[in-house]
Design brief:
Length: 341
């Protein structure tokens, strides 16, 4: 028995210390120390020993068991630290390496133009207001003095939500004039940029959704001279000092008198070129003095207060400023296009 234990000691300890895998090490533990293991097998013979021999053998067996256990623990520790080392090596990360460059976007060219315009108006004491794109026909048309029979009310021109024609996608930002007059106390100086919708087919100059900027001033003693002076100033800030404008008579139901403002082509100085389509002038906006009917409909006495308003297309302005020749480019979000600005 003693020899058997010596043999087991000799073979087991070395095998354990040579073992290179945690699973196999566990298998070795079972093989040597398990219920059906080799040491147990040897101890079964204890019954055949004399009472004098037994304690010495028992002691030897216990010593062997604890030596094997110690060898297993030692190897286990070595294996797990080796594993950890390998894991650390394979997952090594050099934190001093430069990172992957992050692709940063930038502001859309149209919003550059909008921000520029907002800055100009805020600098003159105007407030920026926002309002609904889903609008009541009452605000989009009726309160703006747009008659029942007006072509812009037509089903073929406007996106209606209901059969009765009461709710629609606003076709212009002008209903913001009414919202402002109904909600704000006087005097009012505001601009209202936003999306508007019309049943237009998409082409190089049309889109069923586009942007307008509405502007309005209501106060005592406001005249057409204020309108011209303010808009001239804005145009000079956008297109440079000395930019020439002209105001042509026009008709809008919600302003009286009404006009359209053109700027002399900043490209050719009025001689005629592709930018102004040979005209020498570029139409920039519609404007006028707020109609007395619109004022009184909003509870403002037209004998005491007067005001001016304008509306302009934002895309067209951006296209002029950045020499963009197709409206669709503004909405397609093609990175190759956007990265040029
Ligand atoms: N809403 C008009 C349009 O979409 C533009 C316009 C003209 C706005 C005259 C105004 C204005 O405020 O006074 O064509």
């Amino acid at each position: 028995m003693k020899q058997q234990m010596q043999a087991l000691r000799a073979s087991s300890i070395q095998t354990i210390l040579d073992c290179d895998n945690a699973e196999r090490l566990e298998a070795l533990r079972v093989k040597y120390l398990g219920k059906k293991g080799e040491l147990t097998g040897i101890l079964r013979q204890m019954g055949g020993l004399s009472a004098e021999e037994r304690p010495a053998m028992g002691q030897l067996a216990n010593q062997l068991r604890s030596d094997i256990e110690a060898a297993i623990e030692k190897r286990k520790g070595e294996l797990s630290s080796a594993m950890m080392e390998q894991k650390l090596k394979s997952e090594a990360l050099d934190v001093t390496l430069p990172g992957e460059p992050v692709h940063l976007g930038h502001k859309h060219p149209m919003y550059n133009v909008l921000d520029q315009i907002k800055d100009i108006f805020v600098g003159m004491g105007f407030e920026i207001v926002d309002g609904p794109e889903v609008e009541l026909a009452e605000y989009n048309f009726t309160k703006l003095n747009i008659d029942e029979g007006h072509p812009s009310r037509d089903w073929t021109d406007t996106f209606y939500f209901s059969e009765d024609g009461k709710i629609l996608l606003r076709t212009q930002t002008s209903p913001m004039q009414v919202h402002a007059m109904e909600q704000k106390s006087l005097p009012i100086r505001m601009i209202a940029p936003g999306r508007v919708y019309r049943k237009d087919e998409v082409d190089a100059t049309h889109s069923p959704m586009f942007h307008q900027i509405e502007g309005m001033v209501i106060d005592k003693g406001i005249t057409m001279a204020d309108l011209k002076a303010t808009l001239n100033l804005v145009v000079e800030k956008i297109y440079g000092e000395g930019t020439v404008t002209r105001f042509r008579p026009h008709h809008f139901p919600f302003t009286e008198p009404s006009c359209e403002m053109d700027i002399q082509c900043h490209k050719c100085g009025g001689k005629g070129c592709p930018t102004c389509k040979g005209e020498g002038w570029i139409e920039v906006l519609g404007a006028g003095m707020v109609h007395p009917k619109v004022l009184s409909g909003c509870g403002i006495d037209p004998d005491v207060y007067s005001g001016w308003a304008f509306g302009m297309g934002l895309e067209r302005l951006a296209m002029g400023e950045y020499k963009i020749n197709d409206l669709r480019l503004i909405f397609e979000n093609d990175i190759r296009f956007l990265e040029q600005f």
